[in-house]
Every structure is written in C-alpha cells, then in structure tokens.
Amino acid sequence: MDTKAISEVLGERFDVAAGDGSRALKELGLPADAATLDVGTGSGNFAIYLASQGYRVITGEPSTDTSQYAGRDWALNAEKAGVLDRIRFEAFDASKLPFEAGAFDAVFFFGVLHHIDEGVRSEVFREALRVLKENGAVVFFEPRTEMLERVRVDDPGHPPAANPSNYLHDQNVREQRIEGALMDIFLYRKSA
Q1: pTM of the predicted model, to two decimals?
Q2: Domains of the chain, start order
Q3: pLDDT tens digits, 15-65
Q4: pLDDT of residue 192
Q5: Whole-angstrom distance, CA of residue 145 vs CA of residue 128
Q6: pLDDT tens digit string along 96-135?
Q7: Distance from C-alpha of 32 to C-alpha of 146, rounded to nearest angstrom
C-alpha cells in the first residue's frame, strides 16, 4: 500500500508523520535495506511510515509508560497498512537502549523528546548516538507552534517542544535543521 492509501486508512496523524518524514528521508539517503529505530511507538504512525518506505523497523517505548500517547494498538494500524511484517516492537528505556553499538542506520524520535524527562535527555541522546552506525543519523522531530496548537485541543497540558541541541554535551556531531510543515527536524551525524 502506498503512502496516500495508508493516509486514507490511518488519517491525519499519519499524514503528519509521512509529510515531515519524507523531508528527513530525502536528506538522509538511507540504503534500501536500512535498519531503523523508532523511539516512542505511540499509535505507530512513524514506524508504519518507515516500513512503508521499505525499511526494517524496530520500535519501542518503556513498558512503564502510562501517558496517553503510549500503549496504543500500533500493530492493528500496521496490519491495516500492510506493513506489520516489517516492524518489530520491543519495550525499552531510551536512556538504556538494549541494542549493540552501531546497530542502526538511523534513529528517529518523532515528537518524542519533549515527552522525555529533561534530566535524562542527554543520556537518551548519547544512547542514540551509541547505537548509530558510523555514517548514520539521529533525527528528532519536534512540534512547531501550529502542531502544538492542534495537539493542545485534546491535550491542554501538552509540553512545549524541546531543542535537541540543548542536550548534546561534548558529542562530536554535525547538526542540520530542516523546517517541516508541522515539525522542526533536527538531523545529527557523527563528525569524522
């Protein structure tokens, strides 16, 4: 099923993930068989988008997360989109990722960083860089004002967007920013 057909099935939130996700993927130029990590599964929209582009996806969130965004039936959405076979869920804490160093071509945080406790955001960033392949990228999507206004209709206490650079301490990386339609996109690659 193509992105447009999946959008018709899954709706507006998938559109947001696919629209700004495509901007990031164009910039990344990932290999066709890229191993990707989607941190913060939620309803699975970003993992589904990645899988629809042909990537192998591991997605996860803490088993202890009781927020309104966690524990959604992502698998049902992935099945509806026809990509369930390309996504594997694994419960994990983003500050202590259970993966080997250099395991992923890209690590994605779609609308996630601002939900992570500020005290561990630096650790989360270090862990994402640790599991990244040498030529890979860590990508954060953080909501722009218009997106926050939409989200706050249903979630008035939704936290403000975070700037990932504030949590990048003593890391040897290059940063690139892209203005998405509804999300600001921050790409980080290891410096040579």
Answers
A1: 0.91
A2: 3-190 (3.40.50.150)
A3: 889 999 999 999 999 998 899 999 998 889 999 999 999 999 999 987 655
A4: 65
A5: 26
A6: 999 999 999 999 999 889 888 999 999 999 999 999 999 9
A7: 33
What is the token pair recorded at 123? 């650790």
Contacting residues for 184 by C-beta, under 8 A, at least 6 apart: 141, 142, 143, 144, 161, 177, 178
CA distance 152 to 54: 33
Alpha-carbon gap, residue 87 to 50, rounded angstroms: 9
- DSSP assignment of 123-170, as one string? HHHHHHHHTEEEEEEEEEEEE-HHHHHHHHHH-TTPPPP--GGGG--S
Average pLDDT, the chain: 89
Q: How many helices (DSSP H) and strands (DSSP E) are in the chain?
A: 6, 7
- 83 CA to centre of own chain: 17
Sign of CA dihedral 21, 24, 30, 35: negative
Coil, helix or strand for 1? coil
